[in-house]
Automatic annotation (TrEMBL):
Coiled coil: none annotated. Keywords: NADP, Oxidoreductase. Pfam families: RmlD_sub_bind. The lineage of its organism: Bacteria, Bacillati, Actinomycetota, Actinomycetes, Kitasatosporales. This is dTDP-4-dehydrorhamnose reductase. The keyword Cell wall biogenesis/degradation does not apply.
């Protein structure tokens, strides 16, 4: 989803962009990475590739670690050799999700899932290998046009079912991929940055609240969204109960922070499903 928005945005800004999918460039294959980067010699690499099937990762840890931890390490090493900067996408799942305040960029991580642990290892590899030109950008609850997501699922279910049940005790930040793409474009136009930034939309809601907002935008009765607890819908991988991300570093860098999640969703609404 993110690359779907990022590539045309960067091209419209005048950047020369090479966007390669998994069939053309497998980030777990060091020979492919070396060939691709050596041939094109990019100034910057943005890694949007990831194993994001959170529940599947619990039963397939080897593959999750290969893609989310080993792949970023290999990319970082190749970028170090070429003198290229690396922007690596990560997730709120690197945190335990047991806080009552937003996680700052430098808050201690504490992942509770295979997915979260694999993503944290990927972060650490990038920052260790590229201490001056490696940037980790964490996102959460992404939705957009490039793939399946909660917002489009709720739109579909609103037309198919008289009501839906959605958990109301997991809190986070719905984030439009377009807004993340704009944040990435801003970073790429600035001098190389290192360290961690959070690019989620601001504010906080739970999944139930997000679903009600989707129904409202559809003109459907939001009361058709019924609240349930996490305990009522057990999953293989435990979800963070509150993984709200803080955005203090944007202000420290003199850059605009992402907008509120509700403002972004309303702006995204006419565009979702266009492509």
């Amino acid at each position: 989803m993110l690359a779907t928005d990022l590539v045309p945005l960067l091209r419209a800004a005048g950047h020369r962009v090479l966007a390669q999918g998994r069939q053309a460039l497998d980030i777990t294959d060091p020979a492919q990475i070396r060939r691709a980067l050596g041939r094109h010699r990019p100034q910057a690499v943005v890694n949007c590739a990831a194993h994001t099937a959170v529940d599947l990762a619990e039963n397939d840890p080897q593959n999750a670690m290969l893609i989310n931890a080993e792949g970023p390490r290999l990319l970082a090493e190749a970028c170090a050799d070429l003198g290229a900067r690396l922007v690596h996408l990560s997730t709120d799942y690197v945190f335990a999700g047991d806080t009552t305040v937003p996680y700052a960029e430098d808050a201690p991580p504490g992942p509770r899932t295979v997915y979260g642990r694999s993503k944290l290892l990927g972060e650490q590899a990038v920052l260790r290998t590229l201490p001056d030109t490696g940037c980790v950008v964490r996102c959460s609850w992404l939705y957009g046009n490039g793939g399946p997501n909660f917002v489009t699922t709720m739109r579909r279910l609103a037309a198919e079912r008289p009501y839906v049940e959605v958990v109301d005790d997991q809190y986070g930040q719905p984030t439009w991929t377009h807004d993340v793409a704009q944040s990435l474009a801003l970073l790429l136009s600035a001098p190389p940055l290192s360290g961690v930034l959070h690019a989620s939309n601001r504010g906080e809601t739970n999944w139930h609240g997000l679903a009600r907002e989707v129904f409202t935008l559809l003109g459907a009765d939001p009361a058709r969204v019924r609240p349930v607890s996490t305990a009522a819908v057990p999953r293989p991988a435990p979800r963070p109960m509150r993984s709200t991300l803080g955005h203090g570093r944007w202000a420290a860098l003199g850059l605009p922070a992402p907008r509120h999640w509700r403002t972004a969703l309303h702006a995204a609404w006419p565009l979702l499903g266009e492509r």
